[in-house]
Every structure is written in structure tokens, then in C-alpha cells.
Amino acid sequence: MRYKKVILLAVCLLAVLPAVLLLPPQAVPVIAENPKTELSVFVPVIMYHAVIDNPNRIGDFIITPQAFENDMEYLANNGYTTVFPSEIIDFAESGKPLPPNPVLITFDDGHYGLLRCILPILEERSLKANVNIEGAYTEQSTIEDDHNPAYSYLTWEEIRLLHNSGRFEIGNHTYGMHSLTGLRKGCRKNPGESLAAYEKALADDVGKLQSILAGTTGVMPRTFAYPFGYVSDESIPVLRSMGLKLLMTCYEKPNYVSVNDELPLILHRYNRPGNMSTEKFMARVLTRDN
Ligand SMILES: [Zn+2]
């Protein structure tokens, strides 16, 4: 009987484990947040990943272009204006005004669907978005040069095209720290790792992608997305020293940005699952706390 319970428990754990590994942690952030004031601007941020034109493929991190278009239609109908991360940084840094009801659209990992499915929608509607690139995936895709339209990553040249379109700003999502398989979770400091060793590892990895992206687009990225949402206090001075002024988490919470907020800004994002209606998702994203 006891063995059966143990086996049942093991089966349950195995069933849950993949979901735990995929989903970003939802615990209270360990990093300090910028304070909300009377003059703060509410800035909702949406986190998308892959976009595939096949309803059979939708999931927590895959949506159809139609769902994205519905989201954009909803935001426009409700008076929201898409902004670039650089506009949010400029507002915090120098008080340059944001449009009324700004919203930030972000894509993580750099999937090929952005070029194929999303760029035409952004161009048609004159919208702005951000993509956070993972260096190793891009390098692999560039070397293989064999796009599977259903599921693959952008190449360096395609990232340049997105940048040149004027519809995307390009951010950093680490060169090779997008992993949960080793001791390190994303780009978080390992337990027992010295601060100096951690800072060097992070600076080497993120700095490598900063250099490549600056060479590819002509612009040094100013935004960074934590892989899998694994944030850490120790990362902030390192990222700041590389010119990164807006850091993105996976905590599903509202953001409030003020002039003269301390940089880097830390913005939280709502993951857009492919199987949720636009109305239900947006009700969560556009809810302010009081
Ligand atoms: Zn990612």
C-alpha cells in the first residue's frame, strides 16, 4: 500500500514537473521595485513568445497571428497606444511625455514568426513592439539556415530587418543563459557561487550579445528580459553597467513609472497564453491596483 502511494506521488510529480519548469516563477520579486507616486504612469506590459499560424499548435507560449491581431484591435478600441521601451526610459530619465494609455508589447526568444506573421500586422496598424533576443538560438538558426516556418528562430540578418522596419526595438535575453538544465536557473546567481564569479559570468554572457546586437543593428540594446523570470538583486549593477536601463520580469503585476525613477526600471509582464480569449486576458493586463 505504501509503495502504491509513493508511486502515485512520483507519477504526480512527473506530471507537474514540466509545467513547473516552463512557467515563470510567480513568487514575490526579490528585487526592489520603483515606487508608485501620484504622478506615476500606468504601463501594462504584455509578454508574447512564439507565433504560429496553426490553431492546433497554440499553448501557454504559442499564439496564432489572429489572436495577436485581436489583442491589438482590443487595445486600440480601448484607447491604448503601443510604445517602445526607449520611450518609457526617456520618460523616466528626462520626463519626455508618453502618449495617453501607453502599453508595451514584448516578444521573448526571437521566434521566426515575428518576421513572418507579426511584422505585417505592426506595419499595417503602425504599432510598436520589442523583441528580446537569445543569442545562442539565433546563432544556431543562422548557421543552419533552414527555416521551418512552423517553429524556428530568427537569424542575425532577420533581426536586422526587424530593427530596420522601425516597428521593433531589440532587447537582450542573454547569449547562452536561457537554460534550466544546469545548476544555474536562467541568469540567476548560483547558490555558493562567489559574487565576483557571478558578475563575470553574467557580464561576459550579456556583454557578448550586447556587442553582437550593436553590430547587427547599429544600436546598443537598452532592455533586458530575465530568462524564465529568474531575477536576482546581484544582476542589477552588472546589467546597469552595460547600459541596460529597462529590465523585464515574468511577474504578472501592474507597473507604474515616474519621472526620475531610479534606473534600471524593472517592469513586470503578463504572459499571453494562446488558449485564452482577448477579453479575458486584457481584463487582467489592464487592471490597475489602487
Ligand atoms: Zn525566454
Name the features.
binds zinc ion; 290 residues; 3-stranded parallel β-sheet; alpha/beta; 6-stranded parallel β-sheet; TIM Barrel; disordered N terminus
Order of helices and strands: HEEEEHEHEHEHHEHEHEEEEH
Distance between the termini: 52 Å
Number of domains: 1
Poorly predicted ranges: 1-28
Tell me the total number of β-strands. 13
H/I helix tally: 9
The main pleated sheet reads as:
6 strands, parallel
So what's the CATH class? Alpha Beta
* Bound heterogens, unique: zinc ion
Shape: globular
> Roughly how much helix do the residues carry, as a percent range?
25-40%
CATH architecture: Alpha-Beta Barrel
The class by helix and strand makeup works out as alpha/beta
The CATH topology annotation reads as TIM Barrel
The whole-number mean of residue pLDDT values reads 89
Approximately how much beta-strand content do the residues carry? 5-15%
Annotated CATH homologous superfamily:
Glycoside hydrolase/deacetylase
Radius of gyration: 19 Å
Q: What does this molecule look like?
A:
The chain is an alpha/beta fold. It has a single domain (about 30-285), classed as Glycoside hydrolase/deacetylase (TIM Barrel). It has 9 helices and 13 strands. Strands 2, 5, 6, 7, 8 and 13 form a 6-stranded parallel β-sheet that branches. Strand 6 (about 100-110), helix 4 (about 115-125) and strand 7 form a beta-alpha-beta unit. Mean pLDDT is about 90; it is low at about 1-30. The structure holds zinc ion (ZN). Zinc ion binds near residues 108, 109, 173, 178 and 227.
